[in-house]
Specification:
By secondary structure, the chain is α+β, with helices and mostly antiparallel strands. About 25% of the residues lie in helices and about 30% in strands. The chain contains 6 helices and 10 strands, in the order H-H-E-H-E-E-E-E-E-E-E-H-H-E-H-E. Strands 1, 2, 3, 4, 5, 6, 7, 8, 9 and 10 form a 10-stranded mixed sheet that branches. The protein is globular, with a radius of gyration of 17 Å. The two termini are about 20 Å apart. The relative contact order is 0.20.
């Protein structure tokens, strides 16, 4: 628990210290650009956005290319498959395995990356013949069915290795666990899967640092 909060504090300090980057733009300007990028992505992909209330009225489900918008978090979520467990994960400690695709939704000159770049990926292993494509392994602690904390624990964690050894699981990754029911299965069609649009505040260590949104497709399987 203590290490988790230390990681968050360090991330915030780094974010403040690096605001001189980003071509001299203010944090407010970067957030506006992020919001514009998300709106553009939604329009270009003909995404139907529904409210949180509509999502709950639909028994916490979404149709194809339909995303529920959680305004307080800035998260857009499409549940591709909810999983086969009888209930959502209960309070306590759990170990999850995830495969994911992380796609940049905004130009980031400081990183030399542009909109549409695939930043990280351990899904669709056939795209990388001969490479060892390990799922992300991470522990999740749930308290009072509302507080979710995660730490990457896998030896080959792609997220931790890429983002300067930061082992805190993005809060946006944990958000869907309130609604999906991941189980332990070897059938790919039965693995819980979601699509997410995450603002910088809910994304990776670098997303918070450089203020950019990402699209994710993520699977959730119990180890």
């Amino acid at each position: 628990m203590k290490n988790f909060y230390i990681q968050i504090l360090l991330g915030l300090l780094v974010l403040v210290g690096l605001q001189a980057c980003n071509d001299g733009k203010t944090y407010g300007e970067l957030v506006e650009e992020e919001e514009d990028a998300i709106a553009r992505y939604i329009s270009q992909h003909n995404i139907k956005v529904i409210s949180k209330d509509q999502f709950f009225a639909n028994d916490s489900t979404t149709a194809e290319n339909e995303y529920a918008f959680f305004k307080d978090k800035g998260i857009y979520m499409n549940i591709v498959y909810p999983g086969d467990a009888e209930e959502i994960l209960p309070d306590g400690s759990h170990v999850l395995l995830s495969r994911f695709v992380e796609v940049l939704m905004k130009d980031v000159p400081d990183l030399g990356r542009v909109t549409g770049d695939t930043l990280l990926k351990n899904m669709y292993a056939n795209d990388y013949p001969g490479m060892q494509m390990k799922p992300e392994e991470y522990s999740v602690v749930i308290e009072n069915k509302t507080n979710y904390m995660g730490t990457f624990t896998g030896r080959y964690s792609l997220m931790a290795r890429t983002y300067e050894g930061n082992t805190a699981v993005p809060t946006g990754w944990l958000f869907p666990l309130q609604f999906i029911k991941p189980a332990r299965t070897t059938q790919s069609s039965k693995v819980a899967r979601v699509k997410l649009i995450l603002p910088h505040s809910e994304g990776s260590f670098y997303a918070s640092r450089f203020v950019y949104p990402c699209f994710y497709e993520i699977t959730y399987n119990l180890r």
